[in-house]
Specification:
Layout: H1 2-17, H2 24-50, E1 55-62, E2 74-81, H3 88-98, E3 118-121, E4 124-127, E5 140-143, E6 150-152, E7 155-156, H4 159-167, H5 189-196, H6 206-210, H7 212-216, H8 223-233, H9 240-250, H10 264-268, H11 275-291
Parallel strand pairs: 1-5
Antiparallel strand pairs: 1-2, 3-4, 3-5, 6-7
Length: about 290
């Protein structure tokens, strides 16, 4: 009897000594805990590093109509490490990737070509990818473009802007085409110089956002759309009949004559397009066309 009891106790001790088999779920949870610990350690290390290096203070506009508690507009503060050549867009990407993945803004090419990251930075319309932090005063206040409906955080609804651009019918419609399909529609060097600057528009909407007339008149075509009309109307390859139609579009009540020559659009254009000059040129063309003296 004693021997049997001792044998049972030995078997029980051996069973208790045997390690439990770890399930796949246990391994996943353990890996997640390990990952969280590593991320926390990295965050602490980065915060300690920030104390020893140059940083930039961002005050970023936040708004999310779909999340309770975030429907009231506010500003969030982010501190990001600074390095030479760093842009506003670089700082926003760092803040999003390291601190708050819900931070929302548009960007694409990062070379001032796509126009998707137009923002209101320190009280002025700018491209985030083109604006150097070294040129700005600290803190850097970043907001969505004024006079446009905010969708979320720094993203605004561009639908109205695109509608105004399409309203001037931005495409060629020549009276005649070359007989040979491979023959070019030739343009003189002088005429190319006339329209060259107007072709640089990247549809960023900065000029429209800066325009006080556009802010108060939702039907005003706006500087970007009028510049696009200038690009085709002043091109010598444009058909004469098509040019007359285009002039009728831009000389309407909410066209070029609504411009008050404030130059705000020209001042904020990231591509240095002389927008106000182009608007005045179309005013002259409209007058000449109606007077029929030329």
């Amino acid at each position: 009897m004693s021997t049997q009891i001792e044998q049972q106790e030995t078997e029980t001790e051996e069973q208790e000594a045997e390690p439990e088999v770890e399930s796949p779920g246990d391994r996943r949870r353990a890996a997640k805990r390990q990952r969280l610990q590593e991320e926390e350690a990295q965050r602490v290390a980065e915060e300690e590093t920030l104390d020893d290096e140059e940083t930039v203070h961002l005050k970023v506009f936040r708004y999310d109509p779909e999340v309770e508690g975030k429907q009231e507009p506010r500003f969030d503060d982010f501190t990001v490490p600074y390095h030479k050549g760093m842009t506003v867009l670089d700082a926003l990407i760092y803040a999003r990737d390291r601190y708050d993945s819900s931070l929302t803004f548009r960007h694409s090419c990062r070379q001032a070509v796509c126009g998707s990251d137009a923002l209101f930075v320190n009280g002025r319309q700018r491209l985030g990818c083109k604006t150097q932090l070294s040129d700005l005063e600290d803190p850097v206040r970043i907001e969505p473009l004024p006079h446009q409906e905010v969708v979320k955080d720094l993203v605004v609804d561009m639908e109205h802007f695109y509608d105004q651009m399409e309203a001037v019918e931005p495409f060629f419609d020549p009276d005649e085409l070359p007989e040979d399909d491979l023959e070019e529609q030739r343009q003189t060097r002088e005429n190319r110089e006339t329209v060259k600057m107007s072709t640089r528009c990247i549809w960023c909407g900065a000029c429209m956002s800066s325009c006080n007339i556009a802010a108060g008149d939702n039907e005003y075509l706006g500087p970007a759309a009028i510049n696009k009309a200038y690009r085709f109307a002043m091109d010598e390859r444009e058909g004469e009949q098509r040019k007359q139609e285009r002039l009728r579009i831009i000389e309407q009540e909410h066209g070029v004559w609504r411009c008050q020559t404030q130059f705000s659009c020209t001042e904020v254009c990231p591509k240095d397009i002389p927008l106000t000059e182009h608007i005045q040129a179309l005013k002259r063309e409209s007058v000449k066309n109606n007077l029929k003296f030329w």
